[in-house]
Structure formats: structure tokens, C-alpha cells
Design goal:
single chain; alpha/beta; Aspartate Aminotransferase, domain 1; Aspartate Aminotransferase, domain 2; 7-stranded mixed beta sheet; 4-stranded antiparallel beta sheet
């Protein structure tokens, strides 16, 4: 079956035009940005919305017209985050706002572990340090056993049975990331939550969705999950903010807040209205994309369809990267190239590829890509962010390649040509 792009050439061009620095860096140097897992390409509309509202000095907690407008901007942003991005029902749960997603994760994990009865906590070896370390730190403070399900080096994920084997009636919380930022493996969260709660019906479940949210829609309500965390800067947005959804029961657990505030309030101080405007701008973009494929008028449906089509485009890009074409061989067919955690392309998998060139140092390979105008990143076991994860997958390191839906087949082919050239040159040494 022929692998085709999801977007027409005209729509693809328009999509690209909505992002900054897709084909060149801020210094005007041509480059291919395949490092979106480290911080994605930015939507122009998000940056412009942030700048527009940063110029306004008025406090949104006043009563004149400008303040009322700022309050409206924030209210719209909160609604877009909760109902459109997280997929919560209207009025369900609460929003956790921090300067970073890591800080958001620590705040949520602390509230749950310090206040929910239990003798153990469960997580996986693939978790980002912000989730893994937060859970470990707070569990140790309470004397709870810290249980870790190990990765499957073949799939790049963690087997569901291995996770569930660690859950029992004394488990306080289960923390499982929504998708791996190394392999693109998407965890079957619905199955995990359903089966885990068959063991303990009132089990709290938390998921780091930072790497998954740029690729697919989230479903907080449908999952019945207690917490999801996202990072706008990983999903076409801005830095300087991290957001978390917490369920109604998690929202009212003791946490840092002003005494006079609602029990579900997690916001401390006046958070920048520009940040909320930027989030609405991101949702506007995805809804715009969705309207090309649906006649639905409600914002959540448009967003879900937009993310579905973006994901379908990324699946097409993934197949092109692995298989190539008649003119350009894919990674699977370039001599010397190793594709890690390779297997049939699942429609659930996110667009992240782990690869290397046999015998070549990963840092040297990343540098060689850089000299040829391709930005990728090495995840190696000398990094505190990578050591536990890559070693649990049976690797000392790897090159992570992470495009997003605004890229096209031409970008993939450029990357493949550069890879083939590097591999051929290294083979001669």
C-alpha cells in the first residue's frame, strides 16, 4: 500500500508558514529541526499572543474594562486547557499551574503521596526524572516501598503485565507516562487504569503526558485519571509554564494554597494572562487544522480531529523515514544504520525514532548531523536525564530523531540523504 502524505501540498505549505524557524535557525542558517522532543517548533500565533498581553500592566483582578478583558482571556485559556486539551468534562477537576511541567509534577505527586494511604508506589523505568524522582522522594519520606516496572528493550515500552504485577491493595499511586520520549511507544493507559483498578478500585493514577500531547489528543475524563501533566513548549507553545489536570478527588487533597480560596484552587498568585492567551492560540491552530476535515462546530471535536490528522501525517512521515522511497532508502535500508526498538509501525506510535550508526559515537554522530544542517539529539548514559532510561532499554545511548506534523516528505528525504552520507563516510574510516 502506497504511503502518502495526509495533507495536500497547499495545506502543508500553509501549516509550515504558521511556525517559526522550520527551515532555518534564528541566525539565518539553513537547518532541519528534528529535535522537537526537546522543545518543539513554535507557532507564531502563540508567541504573538504572549507578547500582546505581556505589554498590558493591568491586574486581571480589578473591575475596569481592561482588567475584565484580561480575566476573560485567562478564563478562556483555562477552559481550553481543561476541556479541549486535557479532555475533562465541564467543571470537572482542577488546573495546576507552575513555571515548569517538572514543578507541576512535583506539586501533584507530593499532594497524593503525602495524603493518600498506602504502603507502596508503582512506576516504570522509562519515566522522566521529574515524575520518577518526585515519586521516589515523597515515597521515601513516608517510608513507602518504591516499585519500578522494567522496560522491554524490544518494544521500547513496558509490558502491561509487568506494571500490573507490582500493583496491590496497598499501592498508594501508579505513575505511568503516556508515551516514551525515546522510542515513541504509547502506553495503553485505558487498559492499564482499568486493570489496575480491578486490583485496587480507588487507586490514584498519574501520567506524564508531556511528550504525548504534541502528537495525540488527551482524554482525562474518559480515562478517569487523577492527573495529567503537559508542557506547552513541547507542543508548539511557549516556555515559562507547565500545566496539570487533577481529578476532583486529587484537587481537594491538602496542597499549597491560600486559606480563603476554593478547596480545588491550586493557583498561587496572579499567573500571566499572556500564557493563557498563548494556550488558546495553540488550540485555535489545531481547531483550524481540524476544520479542514470535519464540519463539527464544537471546539473539542475540532481539536481532536486536528490532532488525529496531525498524528496520521506523522505516521506517514515515520513510515517514510523507516522505509524511504524508490529514490531515497529509509533508515531500515541504509548500510550501517541501526534502528532501535524497531518493529511494525503501530498507528498508536508517536513520531520519535531512536537510531545510530554501528560503531559510531553518539555525540560524534550528533555533531556530524549538525555540521550538515540537521538538528537531532543524543540521549546517552552520562546524562542524568537519560542514564536510567537508555540503560533500562539495553542501550548506552542513541540518537533521538523527532520531527512533527509540519514537516513533509522532502524534509524526511533530506534527513535520510544526510544519514546515508554520514554512514558511507564512517564506513570508509
Amino acid at each position: 500500500m502506497e504511503n502518502k502524505p495526509v495533507f495536500s501540498p497547499e495545506l502543508q505549505k500553509e501549516i509550515k508558514s504558521k511556525f517559526y524557524y522550520v527551515d532555518e535557525d534564528p541566525f539565518g542558517k539553513k537547518r532541519l529541526f528534528f529535535e522537537n522532543s526537546g522543545g518543539s517548533l513554535r507557532l507564531k500565533a502563540c508567541v504573538e499572543a504572549k507578547a500582546k498581553y505581556e505589554m498590558i500592566p493591568d491586574c486581571p483582578m480589578r473591575y475596569h474594562d481592561v482588567s475584565q478583558k484580561l480575566h476573560e482571556v485567562k478564563a478562556n485559556g483555562v477552559r481550553d486547557l481543561m476541556e479541549v486539551i486535557f479532555g475533562a468534562a465541564p467543571g470537572e477537576g482542577a488546573l495546576v499551574t507552575e513555571l515548569t511541567p517538572s514543578r507541576t509534577t512535583f506539586s501533584i505527586m507530593r499532594a497524593i503521596v503525602e495524603n493518600v494511604p498506602g504502603k507502596n508506589v508503582v512506576t516504570t523505568s522509562l519515566e522522566h526524572p521529574s515524575a520518577y524522582d518526585a515519586l521516589k522522594i515523597y515515597a521515601e519520606k513516608r517510608g513507602m516501598e518504591f516499585r519500578v516496572a522494567q522496560a522491554n528493550p524490544k518494544t521500547g515500552g513496558v509490558d502491561v503485565d509487568d506494571i500490573l504485577s507490582l500493583v496491590d491493595k496497598d499501592t498508594c499511586v501508579l505513575s505511568v507516562m503516556s508515551a516514551s520520549n525515546i522510542s515513541g511507544y504509547v502506553f495503553p493507559m485505558k487498559e492499564i487504569i482499568t486493570r489496575a483498578r480491578a486490583i485496587k478500585p480507588d487507586l490514584y493514577v498519574v501520567s506524564d503526558a508531556v511528550q504525548h500531547q504534541p502528537h495525540q489528543a488527551l482524554y482525562a475524563h474518559d480515562l478517569g485519571i487523577d492527573a495529567l501533566v503537559i508542557a506547552p513548549y513541547k507542543a508548539f507553545g511557549i516556555r515559562g509554564c507547565g500545566y496539570g489536570y487533577v481529578s476532583d478527588r486529587a484537587a481537594v487533597l491538602p496542597h499549597d494554597k491560600l486559606e480563603g480560596k476554593d478547596p480545588k484552587e491550586w493557583e498561587l498568585g496572579t499567573y500571566p494572562h499572556g500564557n493563557f492567551a498563548a494556550m488558546s492560540a495553540m488550540v485555535d491552530y489545531v481547531c483550524w487544522l481540524g476544520r479542514h476535515f470535519t464540519q463539527a462546530e464544537d471546539r473539542r471535536t475540532q481539536y481532536v480531529v486536528g490532532m488525529q490528522k496531525a498524528h496520521e501525517q506523522e505516521t506517514a512521515l515515520l513510515i517514510r523515514m523507516l522505509e524511504g522511497s524508490a529514490e531515497v532508502p529509509g533508515l531500515r535500508h541504509i548500510p550501517g544504520v541501526e534502528v532501535y526498538f524497531d518493529g511494525p509501525v503501530s498507528p498508536e506510535r508517536d513520531l520519535v525514532v531512536a537510531m545510530g550508526i554501528k560503531g559510531m559515537d553518539y555525540t560524534a554522530l550528533r555533531e556530524e548531523y549538525g555540521r550538515r544542517g540537521v538538528l537531532v539529539f543524543e540521549r546517552i548514559n552520562t546524562s542524568i536525564y537519560s542514564k536510567r532510561i537508555v540503560e533500562s532499554l539495553g542501550q548506552t545511548g542513541l540518537i533521538r530523531v523527532s520531527p512533527i506534523h509540519c514537516h513533509d516528505f522532502g524534509d524526511i528525504d533530506q534527513y535520510l540523504k544526510v544519514t546515508a552520507a554520514i554512514a558511507a563516510e564512517f564506513a570508509k574510516k
